[in-house]
């Protein structure tokens, strides 16, 4: 039976992905609620029926008191059947109705609603560009993905569990009192008015207070996770107390925002008790007065008393439910700051897959300053012939990596364009573009998965033999066989730690090389691909690299000039521009920047001191 309700909505069902999610709270939630429309309607209907039954039971209690005021010997004779019917109703039908209500809410809605939001929110965030991620804390993004779905689920739960139920209950109570004596409705209506004012006062403050508290919590997560992921720097610089202070500032923010929230609840609780006192004295006192005048029966007084006491118990719960509702909406509003952000780097409308032919790369008048006035690239134009191998050198910050990242369309260029085989890379699908480019990066971070998963990331459908062959070519096979992790997995199954921290820099780089070898893409970008290797391994890998480059268009960035001296052409970049280009010998003869780099190289490296001095 549980399965039936749990399977009413499939949270992973395909859906139309939006590039620009709704920016306002209600439409944002409605968007996620769409697959739940039918189940929400049913839940609301059963909540109303359950509330009506509860009110009706109070009325029935008044009726029982009234018949008990009659002749005891006649009660069973006159009302026996009705009393049995009432008993059966309470024993059978009422539990069934309530069971249906909670099954719909607890099993149909709750596990699926949060899951659907988390799934879709993660799918949306994963589509964001590299630049988008660079502008935020990974911890904060993760926190919002984690806390928004349960908050939205809790808000929806309150709508059906408390708000729909209590609205139906209040309307029923008015009808019931009105039926006994319409004057009894007056104290209830006055109380309702005051209750509404209090509710409004609380609710308008709870949403913003809760959003601020939630914001502060996400900030704490962002800062704490930042310290943990960079624990090496923290320890190396002995910045233990500085990191604590950095986190404390955010933690203190959370405390203060939480204090403001809690003050609201205290005020609400105290005023509520006062209001409820008014309700009890008003309704029960009035009912007694009416009874004394003979205008109300004993049963009516009993029903009115039971009703007010029940309302007294319920009002705290309703207020709590309402504040929870608005508090959770505050959390959702905070989560929206991440989850509802439009995807800015999109495939062009009707983008086609990149049709790779020979592999010509043309960069036309490219300028990219990362949204600032300077830095990055300035008016770079360049044509790389199919199969040509380009070495890219220049001081740190000259713009080499920027050029490579723009080729991968990690960012949209600010000015100019890049063409591959005559096709503007902004107009082809991002996936097809990146599938055709293999890249080995300077700081080769790996995924916290097994070595096998990491290598197969280059081509998930490769066979085991192909994967091992790639590892061998990258000089990685031997050391991989010696790996073991604390859980007892070894070799290709060993986990590499977050970002690959359990491997040495050179080992990491070889695993990334293996995955690019396996990918075997027609364009190859090497950004300091061998910088972490010792000369012996590097020499062994150079052959593999040259082998890999055959028939491919290649851009290789290197500070170690000896690794690129053999390239077809060398480009020298400085301050975002290409300042020299040509073969190694020609550039040396030119006596410019390249010649000075070469002259100052010690042991094949660009000397960092001389670089700084420049
Ligand atoms: N994500 C980014 N956001 C803003 N500015 C950036 C970003 N990445 C790089 N820059 C800036 O662009 C300029 C060029 O950086 P780039 O990484 O391209 O240099 P590089 O030549 O590859 O240097 P290195 O040899 O040190 O890797 C620098 O001034 C840098 O501060």
UniProtKB/TrEMBL annotation:
Q: How does it sit in the membrane?
A: Multi-pass membrane protein
Transmembrane helix listed as a keyword:
yes
Keywords for the protein's UniProt record, in alphabetical order: ATP-binding, Membrane, Nucleotide-binding, Transmembrane, Transmembrane helix
Pinpoint the ABC transporter domain residues. Answer: 361-600
Q: Name one Pfam family in it.
A: ABC_tran
Tell me where the transmembrane regions lie.
Answer: 39-59, 79-97, 155-178, 184-203, 264-288
Give the domain of life: Bacteria
Q: Name one GO cellular component term.
A: plasma membrane
Compartments reported by the entry:
Cell membrane
Asked if Cytoplasm is a keyword of the record, the answer is: no
Domain ABC transmembrane type-1, by residue range, is 41-327
| InterPro entries, per database record | AAA+_ATPase (IPR003593), ABC1_TM_dom (IPR011527), ABC1_TM_sf (IPR036640), ABC_transporter-like_ATP-bd (IPR003439), ABC_transporter-like_CS (IPR017871), P-loop_NTPase (IPR027417), Type_1_exporter (IPR039421)
Q: GO molecular-function annotation terms?
A: ABC-type transporter activity; ATP binding; ATP hydrolysis activity; ATPase-coupled lipid transmembrane transporter activity
Q: Which PANTHER family match?
A: ATP-BINDING CASSETTE SUB-FAMILY B, ATP-BINDING_PERMEASE FUSION ABC TRANSPORTER-RELATED
- Summarize the protein's role: Part of an ABC transporter complex. Transmembrane domains (TMD) form a pore in the inner membrane and the ATP-binding domain (NBD) is responsible for energy generation.
The identity of this protein, by name, is Arginine transporter ATP-binding subunit
Q: Which organism is it from?
A: Antarctobacter heliothermus
Output the lineage of the source organism: Bacteria, Pseudomonadati, Pseudomonadota, Alphaproteobacteria, Rhodobacterales
């Amino acid at each position: 039976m549980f399965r039936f309700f749990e399977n009413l909505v499939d949270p992973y069902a395909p859906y139309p992905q939006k590039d620009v999610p709704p920016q306002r709270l209600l439409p944002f939630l409605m968007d996620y609620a769409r697959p739940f429309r039918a189940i929400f309607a049913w839940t609301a209907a059963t909540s109303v029926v359950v509330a009506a039954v509860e009110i009706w039971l109070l009325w029935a209690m008044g009726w029982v008191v009234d018949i008990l005021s009659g002749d005891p010997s006649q009660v069973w004779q006159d009302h026996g059947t009705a009393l049995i019917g009432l008993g059966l109703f309470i024993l059978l039908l009422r539990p069934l109705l309530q069971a249906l209500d909670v099954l719909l809410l607890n099993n149909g809605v709750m596990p699926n609603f949060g899951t659907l939001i988390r799934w879709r929110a993660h799918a949306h965030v994963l589509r964001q560009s590299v630049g988008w991620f660079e502008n935020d804390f990974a911890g904060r993004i993760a926190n919002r993905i984690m806390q928004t779905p349960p908050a939205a689920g809790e808000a929806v739960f309150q709508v059906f569990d408390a708000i729909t139920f209590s609205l139906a209950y209040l309307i029923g109570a008015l009808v019931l009192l009105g039926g006994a004596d319409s004057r009894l409705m007056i104290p209830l209506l006055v109380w309702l008015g005051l209750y509404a004012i209090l509710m409004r006062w609380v609710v308008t403050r709870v949403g913003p207070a809760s959003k601020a508290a939630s914001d502060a919590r996400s900030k704490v997560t962002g800062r704490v996770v930042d310290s943990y992921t960079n624990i090496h720097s923290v320890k190396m610089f002995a910045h233990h107390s500085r990191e604590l202070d950095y986190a404390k500032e955010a933690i203190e923010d959370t405390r203060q925002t939480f204090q403001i929230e809690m003050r609201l609840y205290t005020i609400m609780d105290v005023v509520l008790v006062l209001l409820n006192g008014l309700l009890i004295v008003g309704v029960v006192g009035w009912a007694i007065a009416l009874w004394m005048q003979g205008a109300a029966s004993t049963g009516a007084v009993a029903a009115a008393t039971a009703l007010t006491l029940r309302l007294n118990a319920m009002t705290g719960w309703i207020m709590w439910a309402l504040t929870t509702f608005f508090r959770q909406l505050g959390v959702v509003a905070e989560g929206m700051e991440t989850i509802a952000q439009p995807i800015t780097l999109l495939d062009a409308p009707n983008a086609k897959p990149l049709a790779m032919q020979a592999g010509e790369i043309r960069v036309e008048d490219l300028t990219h300053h990362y949204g600032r006035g300077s830095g990055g690239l300035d008016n770079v134009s360049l044509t790389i012939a199919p199969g040509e191998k380009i070495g890219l050198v220049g001081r740190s910050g000259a713009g080499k990596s920027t050029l490579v990242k723009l080729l991968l369309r990690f960012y949209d260029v600010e000015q100019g364009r890049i063409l591959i085989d005559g096709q503007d890379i902004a107009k082809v699908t991002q996936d097809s573009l990146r599938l055709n480019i293999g890249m080995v990066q300077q700081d080769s971070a790996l995924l916290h998965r097994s070595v096998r998963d990491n290598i197969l990331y280059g081509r998930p459908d490769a066979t085991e033999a192909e994967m091992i062959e790639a590892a061998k070519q990258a000089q990685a096979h031997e050391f991989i066989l010696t790996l073991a992790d604390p859980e007892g997995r070894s070799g290709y199954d060993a986990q590499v730690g977050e970002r690959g921290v359990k491997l040495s820099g050179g080992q990491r780089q070889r695993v990334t090389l293996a995955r690019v070898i396996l990918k075997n893409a027609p364009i190859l970008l090497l950004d300091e691909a061998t910088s972490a290797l010792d000369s012996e391994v590097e020499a062994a890998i150079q052959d593999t690299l040259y082998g890999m480059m055959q028939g491919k268009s290649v851009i290789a960035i290197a500070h170690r000039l000896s690794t690129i001296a053999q390239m077809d052409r060398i480009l020298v970049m400085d301050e975002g521009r290409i300042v020299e280009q040509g073969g190694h010998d020609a550039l040396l003869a030119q006596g410019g920047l390249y010649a000075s780099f070469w002259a100052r190289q010690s042991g094949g490296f660009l000397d960092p001191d001389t670089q700084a001095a420049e």
